Amino acid sequence: MDTVDLSLLAAYPGEYKDSLIAELYSALQLEQEGITIMPGVKNKLNMHKLLIEDGLKPYTGKFVAKKDLKYKPRVLEVNKAQRDFAIDPTEYLPTFMAAKRGRGENSENLNIPFAQFMWEQYVKKMGTEVNLNTVYHGQGQAAFVEFDAGDAYAVGDLVTFDQDGETRFFECVTITTAGQSPTTHAAKWKWAGAKALTKGFGKIIADEITGGGTTVVATGASTGANAYDKQMSVYRALPESVKMGQSGQVLLYQSMTDFEYLMDHYEDKVSKNFETINGITYLAKTEKKVGIKPVSWLSGSRRIIASVAGNLVAGTDQMNDMNVIKAIAQHYTLETSTSFMIGFQIQDLSVLKVNDQL
After folding, report:
1. Which of 187, 135, 132, 138 is nearest to 158 (CA)?
2. What count of other Cβ atoms lies within 10 Å of the Cβ of residue 343?
3. What is d(CA 155, CA 109) in angstroms, rounded to the nearest whole number?
């Protein structure tokens, strides 16, 4: 069982600052990034859209009805995620943090230096993993194939691989030759467990495009010289009723890269023809009906998603489940675990348009 890696602590003896710094992990903040939370979901939530067919006709005086009401289902499915973490506190003894263990080195001393800070970062790191690798980029377990030692793999290939007594999920980051596995050539693979948790919006949209549930707007790649035109074309592909504001606020979800290109193009083409109100930057020439929404979960993607606010949903049982850390003291180690439910869905495809970039 792996425990904490203290090799770098042992390599730097001497005095130390009485605190730690951390990478800039971000706690999971779905609602702040334009996603509607649906709590209390433990398996599947059937969301049915009510459709009423056209039925007006000239007066006849004779009652003849037809099947006007239809219900179209969308299923929000959540899957359970977990995070395991083991620490052997005695491994700190050869390092300069040993004093933080307190007095006594009996079997009851399972103190960890800077424990509270570490647990806070532990939770934030999980949030970062979900945000960057699951919300949009999640593929679900079915997208992973069992590693075959006789195959070579290309960048982006997803595999399962038995390692340390469990099946783990990896993504190829450097082309391999046959037999180069996550164990023998670890640098050619990266951990992809968060992508296996559930289907993210990217996978949901791609499947709907393949299945005919939605279509893309042909825009080509955005740059600082054309971004406004590209985003406007995605917005204008929405139904007329949506553009009239009858369905509520429209948001253009995008990566910071596309947002920066849009700002560059604003300067060049429509300077001073947009404004920011209550933290929302509105797309020019839309009468403030379209908010520009740069989101971290689209990092690494050039997809632009135009939809009514509230249409992208995340299902879970309780959002604070991720903050609950169960710790079990073993003879010489401290084993901790966290588990929670997570899943994503688009409620109504008719009020969603995307560009042709991935």
Report:
1. 138
2. 26
3. 46
